[in-house]
Amino acid sequence: MKLHIVYEDEHLLVLYKPAGVPVQSARVGTKDCESLIKNYLYEKNPGKGAPYLGMVHRLDQPVEGLVLFALTPQAAAALSRQSAGHKMEKTYLAVRRVVDNFSVENTNSQKLCGKPVGNVEKEVDNWTECVDYLCKNGKENRSEITSPTYPGAKKAVLRYRILERRKGQELVEIRLETGRHHQIRVQMAGMGTPLAGDRKYGSAETEKYVENVENSFPALCAYRLRFRHPATGKWMEFEIKPQNPVFSTFLSTK
User: Fold this and answer.
1) If you write DSSP's letter for every residue of the chain in order, what string do you get?
2) What domains are there in the chain, each with its CATH number?
3) Global pTM?
4) I need a labelling partner for 44 at 20 to 30 A (CA). Which of 36, 80, 125, 158 fits?
5) pLDDT by residue (tens digit) across 122-173?
């Protein structure tokens, strides 16, 4: 994997992560973003010893997009505070499937954590806010929608708006208010509109309704990142174009 560095200074580094590449991995020999960046920094300044690299946030392995790393402990602390305090804006683009007579019960998004509760939605500043309670099924590496009282259930909140509709699919913009395991994927599936290409929470049967799904990754991209610089306090914003071919149906005309 070749590093695609979007921005770098002495305090931080913004990286584009392709789908399928882990941000961090404990497996020996696995090429992950963390080890590749550390190698890059060491080769850049070999006389300084092992470089410092702080992970500010993560992306799921199948998801492409922007990832932020800190290059000093001070920057790591400042950026982590922004992320934890919801001062850092993480915006995603996704293509979700909209199929007539589509039933969530016919997808792989089974409810394994007790009786599920449907999405709670409301309009907030021209965005639709969606609230669920999720529990993580570690054995199967998935999350499930459940009731608020189920043991281990965590509140999951996101906001989304539909940018464009085409036959059988919608281009949506999403902002995370919480950072739960597989949150966007499971909440979209919970609405009956799973992401195109998502084999874990969707259904291969319905892929025939969507164009350009000859890939093994969900159509989800962390395409915009906005935060304050940890040293100067100035706002910084970065944006990239998704590479997943599913997006070409919409973005080729933009």
Assistant:
1) ---EEEEE-SSEEEEEEPTT--SS--STT---HHHHHHHHHHHHSGGG-SPP-EE-----TT-EEEEEEESSHHHHHHHHHHHHTT-SEEEEEEEEE--TT--GGGSS----SSS----EEEEETTEEEEEEEEEEETTTTEEEEE-TTSTT-EEEEEEEEEEEEETTEEEEEEEESS--TTHHHHHHHHTT-PBTT-TTTS-GGGGGGSSS--SSS-SEEEEEEEEE-TTT--EEEEE----SGGGHHHHTT-
2) 4-88+223-251 (3.30.2350.10), 91-209 (3.30.2350.10)
3) 0.85
4) 80
5) 677 789 999 999 999 888 889 999 999 999 999 999 999 999 998 889 999 9
